[in-house]
Design a protein that fits this description.
Strand order of the largest sheet: 2-1-3-4
Structural class: alpha+beta
Number of helices: 8
Oligomer: single chain
Strand content: 5-15%
CATH topology of the largest domain: Glutathione S-transferase Yfyf (Class Pi), Chain A, domain 2
Order of helices and strands: EHEHEEHHHHHH
Number of domains: 2
C-alpha cells in the first residue's frame, strides 16, 4: 500500500491536490471518483464525498484530509518541510493561502453565478466585492515573485492553481502580475508531471 490514497476526479479541484502530492514527492495511489457513483471508501472517509480527499496511512493510523488548501499544507508538513514557510514568511504564507480559499473563491463563485453585492452589503460579504478582491491579489503579486516573497512554497500550489485556473477559464482578468506569476509556476516539473496525468485522463473521458 502506498503512503497515501488520493480520491480525485481530473475535472475538479483535485488537480490542486495532485500537484501538491508531486511537489511533496509523496507516494500515493489514485482512486478515480465518478460524479454519480461515489465509492464507499470515500464516503466513509469524507461524508460529503468531495474530492479531493486524501487518506494518509500513517503508522499511528489513517489520517483523512479534505479541502484542497488543507491538503496542500498537510503534505508540506508531512513530506516536504522545504515547502513550508520560514518564520518570516509565515504571515504572508497563511494570509494569502486563506485569502485564496476564502475571499477569492467566494468572489469568483459569486461572479460566475451572477450574484451581485451592493455597496451596503459588502460589509456582510467575506470578499467585499469581486473588484476589491482581484485588486488586492494583483497588488500583492505585482510586488512579489511568489506568495511568501522570493521563494516558492506550498502556498503557491494553492494560490497558483487559483490564478492558473482563473486565467485559463477567464474568471480572473488578464493582468500583467497574474500572467507573470502563472509563467513562473507552470514551469515547475511537479506542476507539469501532475497536469500530464490529469490532462491525459480528461482526454480519455471525452466522447
Amino acid at each position: 500500500m502506498a503512503d497515501y490514497t488520493f480520491f480525485f476526479n481530473p475535472m475538479s479541484r483535485a488537480q490542486i491536490a495532485r500537484w501538491a502530492l508531486h511537489e511533496a514527492r509523496a507516494d500515493y495511489d489514485s482512486v478515480m471518483v465518478p460524479w454519480e457513483d461515489k465509492p464507499d471508501a470515500l464516503i466513509k472517509a469524507n461524508p460529503m464525498a468531495k474530492v479531493p480527499t486524501i487518506i494518509h496511512h500513517h503508522t499511528d493510523g489513517d489520517r483523512v484530509v479534505s479541502e484542497a488548501a488543507a491538503i496542500c499544507h498537510y503534505l508540506a508538513e508531512a513530506e516536504a518541510p522545504d515547502l513550508l514557510p520560514q518564520d518570516a514568511e509565515k504571515a504572508d504564507y497563511f494570509r494569502w493561502m486563506f485569502f485564496a480559499a476564502g475571499p477569492l473563491e467566494q468572489a469568483i463563485t459569486a461572479k460566475a453565478l451572477g450574484w451581485t453585492v451592493s455597496d451596503k452589503e459588502q460589509v456582510m460579504a467575506g470578499f467585499g466585492s469581486y473588484e476589491r478582491t482581484v485588486d488586492a491579489l494583483e497588488g500583492w503579486l505585482s510586488a512579489h515573485d511568489y506568495v511568501s516573497g522570493a521563494r516558492f512554497t506550498m502556498a503557491d500550489v494553492y494560490v497558483g492553481s487559483a490564478v492558473d485556473w482563473g486565467l485559463q477559464f477567464k474568471s480572473l482578468p488578464e493582468r500583467a502580475a497574474f500572467s507573470a506569476y502563472q509563467a513562473r509556476i507552470v514551469n515547475r516539473p511537479a506542476y507539469n508531471a501532475a497536469k500530464a496525468i490529469d490532462y491525459k485522463l480528461i482526454e480519455e473521458m471525452q466522447p
